[in-house]
Amino acid sequence: MLIFAEIQLYFCKYIIYMKTKTVWFCKECGNESPKWMGRCPACGEWNTMVEETVATGKKPGGAAAVSVPGSGHKPMPLSHIDSSVENRISLNNGEVDRILGGGLVEGSLVLIGGEPGIGKSTLSLQIPLHCPDLKTLYVTGEESAKQVKLRATRIGGDDSNCMIYSETLMENIIAEARAMMPDLMVVDSVQTMFSQSVESSPGSVTQIKETAAMLLRFAKETGVPVILIGHITKEGSIAGPKILEHIVDVVLQFEGDNGGTYRLLRSIKNRFGSTSELAVFEMTGKGLREVSNPSEMLIPMHEEGLSGVAVSAMLDGTRPFLIEVQSLVSTAAYGTPQRSATGFDVRRLNMLLAVLEKRAGFKLSVKDVFLNMAGGLKVSDPACDLAVIAAVLSSNFDFAIPSDVCFAGEIGLSGEVRPVAQTDRRVIEAARLGFKKIFVSSFSSLEGVDTQNIEVVKVADVPALCRSLFKN
Ligand code: TYD
Ligand code: MG
Fold first, then answer.
1. How far, in Å, from the CA of 129 to the mean position of ligand 1?
2. Predicted local distance difference test score (pLDDT) of residue 214
3. Could you tell which of 283, 284, 286, 289 is best to mutate to test the pocket of ligand 1, judged by most ligand atoms within 8 Å of the CB?
4. Measuring from atom 21 of ligand 1, which residue has the nearest CA?
């Protein structure tokens, strides 16, 4: 009898073994491997493989479902394809519409990523509340319907056309969405949703891929635009939206420091518009307020010039705006001086300091240098170099740069000031905001730009910048 029970147990185990198998996924790029590897062969990242159980007989993740099976489409010449009708839905939110390239495209899948608590749920609830004409299905897997209601009351707006559906099973969600056929669907969040057809738990790589693939199929078949929310942790978590980036049409990423009130929405991928666009919001007691002119929010709030502060006319995406660069240079307390930068690449800061030391003779190697971009912004525009150098010099000599002066120029390794893209637009924006002087490269051409209200100072290299700065 005991032997019989053991044989039965063995067979049960065998059947379970037959139905599922263990595979390894890279949590950065989603690459699949039958065995553990220290380094992912696809993206080259170390120690990113995680173990998951998947059902056999079916390709894990259902990623093949990206193309709609049995859609009845036939190959056709490119010239026969009608591209004139790309229906865009305005979301009544200038910043979001602009970052999407002029509104939400029908049938598109938009991923909004960001760290927890940054404002993803607030923005995605605010959109339907401010567009009462759009019939919206808001699927919440994170918060209860009551919590969503409380948030909606806080945000305000018209909620008559917004249906809240508290569900996490994808099969039910798709069935409900097909029955309702909304104008817009929001799914909060991809990490909480799960499909019965996949063995692993919600939040795993396979579940996330399957959820996204099901939503993509639904969006493409019905033309309903879907906004999908995904968390990303500082370490690029296992359930990070990174693995979804190639599946979805648009990836928007929320940035900004949690303590501050500014929130930046950056377009990382957009099949229907330009990337590297930036939308700025302010988190208020009543949801997110659009900051349609970021320059006015980010430039100095003080009248008098302070030492260590310089304003850079930068460009993010297609929009020029001005940002305050703050620097503090102090005598190094320890043998090795500290260099620290917030919102700026610390390697670039080191390079700029080396240029200052070598080309302009400033002994900064015995000084600690701290750099900060105001407003929690992460800056990658090389045009900020000139303002960084000016801020460092200003702090080092305790010399205030007047608050109506700004800078736009890239610094080369030999200390030359190089021209930057769209200098004319930066000059126009600075003049519009009441700046009286802008430092640019002497190689910039400013033909046809109205410089009546602003003095354009052209500098060729770092020593020339010092001479012009300290002259007055
Ligand atoms: P939330 O949208 O829940 O973040 P996420 O979905 O990205 O995790 O935003 C949460 C934060 O926003 C929370 O700390 C409270 C704050 N908040 C406001 O300051 N004002 C508001 O009107 C709302 C709705 C939220
Ligand atoms: Mg949320």
1. 15
2. 95
3. 283
4. 287
Atom index in ligand 1 nearest the CA of residue 125 equals 2
For residues 96 and 339, give the distance between their C-alpha atoms in angstroms, rounded to a whole number: 36
Question: Which protein residues are within 6 Å of ligand 1, measured from CB?
Answer: 114, 116-122, 151, 154-155, 283, 285-287
- For the chain, the domains span 18-56, 92-292, 298-469
- 143 CA: nearest ligand 1 atom: 3
Fold of the 92-292 domain: Rossmann fold (3.40.50)
Please determine, for residue 12, whether its predicted confidence score (pLDDT) is greater than 50: no
212: tokens are 């996204």
Q: What is the structure's pLDDT at 114?
A: 86
Residue having the nearest C-alpha atom to atom 9 of ligand 1: 119
pLDDT (tens digit, 9 = 90+) per residue, 37-80? 888 888 888 888 888 777 665 444 444 444 445 556 778 888 88
Quickly state the pLDDT bin for 19 (edges 50, 70, 90).
low
Please identify, by atom number, the ligand 1 atom nearest to the C-alpha of residue 155: 22
CATH fold of the domain at 298-469: Ribosomal Protein S5; domain 2 (3.30.230)
Rounded to the nearest angstrom, the distance between the alpha carbon of 188 and the centre of ligand 2 is: 7
412, amino acid identity: G
Handedness of CA 57, 59, 62, 67 (dihedral sign): negative
Q: What pLDDT does residue 67 have? A: 46
Task: Note residues around ion ligand 2 (Cβ under 5 angstroms).
Answer: 121
- Give distance in angstroms: CA of 116 to centre of ligand 2: 7
pLDDT at position 469 is 85
